[in-house]
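Handout, page 2. Input:
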Amino acid sequence: MTTLSVLTYNTLFAGRDGDDDRRARKQIELINDLRPDVFLMQEARHLDAQGSALLYALERDISMRGFLAIAPRTGQHIAIFIREPLRPLSFEVDGAHFHHTLATLKVAVPGGEQPITLISAHLCPNGPDVRRREAAYLTVQAAPDRLTLIAGDFNSASPHDPEPEDWVGLAPHHRARYLSDDLQGIDRSVLAQLEAAGWVDLGHRLDASKAPTVPTGAYRDVEFATMRCDYLLASQALVTKARSYRVIRNDITDAASDHYPVFATFDL
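Output:
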């Protein structure tokens, strides 16, 4: 293996609206088209139900092995899926320090000089104070000599991005979730804190368009300003191996979730 492809996706309740699984089927279609080596999934809701029947079904449908992190308070689980020949070395779950939970999977890459640590994150939607506390537990993972990737939904704006054009039009009870400490603009402190620790925002580095990841076409005027909300953050050692990054926007992703998925590749 010389190229590692990574997909991160907040799937909005695992693509299910009650018993309606049409969005989930569209998401599976997308994953099978992309065939990522790693799939970091947020909002893996109900994948643990009935003896993890939905988890096993998803593993079968996308031909990947899944590792599920239970969110004990919210039910918004997190999962990491890997494809052979990646080999799992360890898996850790932190449901104590995060509003939802955190999933960390260390994998061996055939031919690689060292393992890669993959972290799937979904930070608290309720306010930057909580997200900054969560980010503090991620800063220590940014050792510059290790191959580490954090990806997921950070519910935060980037210090590199302008104020969303539709920010002032967002309903006040949603805008309050993203307000900076001055209660005026959108908060950028969470990503700034992570970058200060050494994490590198691949979207900022590799995507000149700064394509937004929320909201999707089917979920306009719901709860998001138009912004980057989903990120891939690489350690200093890993960022030198990053080769491509793109937000996947098409007819499928316009309606399959309220977030657009993000896809990146690395040369190892």
